[in-house]
Design brief:
- The complex is a heterodimer of chains A (about 300) and B (about 200).
- Chain A starts with a helix and ends in an 8-residue tail after the last helix.
- Chain A has about 300 residues and is mainly alpha-helical.
- In chain A, a hairpin with a 5-residue loop joins strand 1 and strand 2.
- The longest helix of chain A is centred in the first third of the chain and has 18 residues.
- Among the domains of chain A are: about 45 residues, no CATH class; about 35 residues, no CATH class; about 50 residues, no CATH class; about 70 residues, no CATH class.
- The radius of gyration of chain A is 32 Å and the shape is flat.
- Chain A contains 15 helices and 2 strands.
- In chain A, strands 1-2 form a two-stranded antiparallel sheet.
- Chain B has a domain of about 110 residues: RNA polymerase sigma factor, region 2, helix turn helix motif (Rna Polymerase Sigma Factor, Chain: A, Orthogonal Bundle), CATH 1.10.1740.10.
- Classes of the chains: A mainly alpha (about 300), B mainly alpha (about 200).
- At the A-B interface, helix 1, helix 3 and helix 4 of A face helix 3, helix 4, helix 6, helix 7 and helix 8 of B.
Chain lengths: ~300, ~200
């Protein structure tokens, strides 16, 4: 392989997309050629700059998208009052408009006089004076001509207390499991991070680290578990993260915690990752960890 | 009926077998299973659309369109590829359509010209917080502008392959499956894209 082809192939090398034979030739050339090594370093720095350009969608946008997608659609679209009014107004000739306006004022006056003050509204909050959120689940007419409406009501309550209070901790643990609100999960996890020694809290953190779809939440869980790298359950989850998490930052943090203590069981996993990990930096970290453990980098 | 769906919801990110159960439940019309399936993937779908289209409005449209297509066509999903590949095929097609239309209209999406060069509005939104180091901030803005300009030079297909490989970390074989092409063709496309990016970034590279 000559310098020109090495220069051309360096992006594919960094992506780990060269065939094994090509990769060997590439590395052999790089070892003996200082200008090509310098060029590869430039290419690496280009990669790093491009990495910084990645955008995470704002959680607010994600929440809006979900709301739009799952919002129940009305079966028939009824014209709004504005549409009915403008149709009526446009149908009047210029000469008839003052008379039409007068008729509308009169209608408004009589309607206000004749409508009972406590008309049953759909907004329950205004009826009871309490802050209640209601969602109508079904509407069904019954044979007597009445209507049966099933609705879920959510009443907001403020609860205050110390973190050491079991009830408060249970509420925060429930918030950590709230699938609809990643921001709430992050904030709750922040509160729990000093309480990771409790088995229940630790299990929730481990569950979030394995399964939470939001990388921010997984980072928070990892942070909370940072001092617990010696516990077998934590190490198992960290090994899972290192092998399966899509986020390279999390994989790197998993290496950091796992390598805080000598563990011969890590050698096999690191050796495998050196061959199959797609992120160069993570791969290098595995390689370095193996070197520090005086273990062979390759598998034979 | 509600109970199995709830159980499926809680198994959102569990192994493939459980995902298959979820998909079968959606095929039988289970709404909560559909919601769970969407929530498993929608953040990465939105991320892909946002990175490719660089416009929150367009990304939002792509998100809606993609999941509505999934809902309408899930009965056609036969498990002959992973759901992930099938979903990404839908999303990438929608995003490619957006990018192609944009190329034809020469539309700039979120990119606006300023005295510092081209700036991504979506980035400007995020970088409104006070910067600690003005020199570094200026350098960052210039770098972002150069990267944007270089990305604009890529064809929609090159842009897609580059995005999937560099930012989504997918292997070229998977990219080939998603874009209905060979691994070799995806490799060539990535190669052209990186050449153009290198040329476009000049001294920043």
């Amino acid at each position: 392989m000559n310098c020109d082809s090495v220069k051309e192939l360096s992006p594919l090398y960094l992506y780990g997309e060269l065939a094994a034979r090509e990769e060997d030739d590439f590395e052999q050339h790089i070892h003996g050629c200082a200008p090509c090594r310098a060029n590869l370093d430039r290419e690496k720095s280009l990669h790093q700059n491009l990495d910084r350009f990645r955008m995470q969608p704002p959680l607010q946008l994600l929440a809006e998208c979900r709301r739009d997608l799952f919002r129940p659609k009305p079966p028939v679209s009824k014209p709004t009052f504005g549409q009915v009014f403008s149709a009526f107004w446009n149908s009047l000739g210029m000469g008839a408009r003052p008379a039409g306006a007068l008729a509308l004022v009169a209608m408004g006056f009589f309607a206000a006089r004749l409508t009972p003050r406590e008309a049953g509204g759909a907004n329950l909050a205004s009826v009871t004076g309490e802050p209640i959120l209601s969602t109508i689940r079904s509407v069904q007419p019954d044979p007597s001509g009445r209507v049966q409406i099933a609705l879920d009501e959510t009443r907001r309550r403020m609860v205050t207390g110390n973190l050491s209070d079991g009830n408060i901790e249970r509420l925060i643990l429930a918030a950590v499991r709230d699938e609809s609100n990643a921001g709430l999960r992050v904030e709750s996890m922040e509160l729990l991070k000093d309480r990771a020694s409790s088995t229940e809290v630790r299990d929730v953190l481990l569950g979030a680290l394995r399964n939470d779809p939001n990388p921010g939440v997984r980072f928070k869980a990892m942070e909370a578990l940072h001092g617990m790298g010696s516990q077998p359950e934590v190490r198992r989850t960290l090994s899972y993260v290192l092998q399966n998490d899509q986020n390279p930052g999390l994989r790197i943090q998993a290496i950091d915690i796992l390598t805080q203590q000598q563990d011969a069981d890590l050698v096999g996993m690191f050796q495998q990752l050196v061959t199959k990990e797609s992120n160069n930096y993570v791969r290098q970290r595995c390689q370095k960890a193996l070197e520090e453990m005086n273990a062979s980098v390759g598998t034979f | 009926m509600a109970q199995p769906a709830a159980a499926v919801v809680s198994a959102r990110l569990a192994p493939k077998v459980e995902e298959a159960e979820l998909i079968r439940a959606v095929q039988q019309g289970d709404q909560s299973a559909f919601e769970a399936l969407v929530r498993s993937y929608d953040q990465s779908v939105l991320g892909l659309a946002m990175n490719l289209l660089r416009s929150p409005e367009d990304a939002r449209d792509a998100y809606q369109e993609a999941f509505l297509r999934v809902y309408k066509n899930i009965h056609l999903f036969r498990f002959d590829c992973s759901f992930y590949t099938w979903l990404y095929r839908i999303v990438t097609n929608i995003c490619l359509d957006h990018l192609r239309k944009r190329k034809i209209r020469k539309e700039e999406s979120a990119v606006v010209e300023t005295s510092d060069g081209a700036i991504d509005r979506t980035y400007a939104l995020e970088e409104n917080r006070p910067a600690g180091d003005p020199e570094r901030s200026l350098w960052n803005r210039q770098l972002n502008a150069r990267i944007l300009a270089a990305l604009e030079e890529l064809t929609p297909r090159e842009r897609m392959v580059f995005e999937l490989r560099h930012y989504q970390g997918m292997r070229l074989r998977t990219i080939g499956e998603i874009l209905d092409t060979t691994e070799e063709a995806a490799k060539n496309c990535l190669f052209r894209a990186t050449q153009k990016m290198r040329a476009g970034l000049g001294d920043f590279a």
